[in-house]
Amino acid sequence: MKSNLLIILTVALPVLAQTTVKDALVERWKTLAEFTIAVASSMPAESYNFRPDPEEMTFGQLMRHIAAVNLDACANASGMPRPRLPLKIAELAKDKGNVDIEKEAAIEFLNDSFDFCNNAVASMSPEHMNTVVGPPASHLTGFEWLWSYFTHTAHHRGQAVIYLRVKAIKPPDYTF
Prior knowledge:
mainly alpha, 7 helices, globular
């Protein structure tokens, strides 16, 4: 009898350990944040205004872009109010031209945006994940907002890795 119970438990435990989509998103957003911050930290402060091509954003602008769009996407997905931009970043946002983004300000903004997103994702109910939210023209569910901007961040972080390699800087090892 004990051996049958042991077999049942052995088979059942993996099923009980499965995570929900929300649990997976919470975990993946944390990993996304850690790796993106590691990439941002790898670029020396004096190279934050580097751009590999005149058509591209500088490395600092790229980090600011990731953080700002995270705030929008996670606010839309969760319904939580979008946090105000940090003062240094807000001042730079007024200037639509080529603005310098300092490493310290960019990393602080990235950290703040990922903290907000982690809280936003954790606050969402399964029903909210499946409900169309945000601007009406977008027609995205909470899950679609998060997934779309998860991939958006990964895309731009990939650009940042190329910037590092062009500068002969080894990027951090990818973690998943």
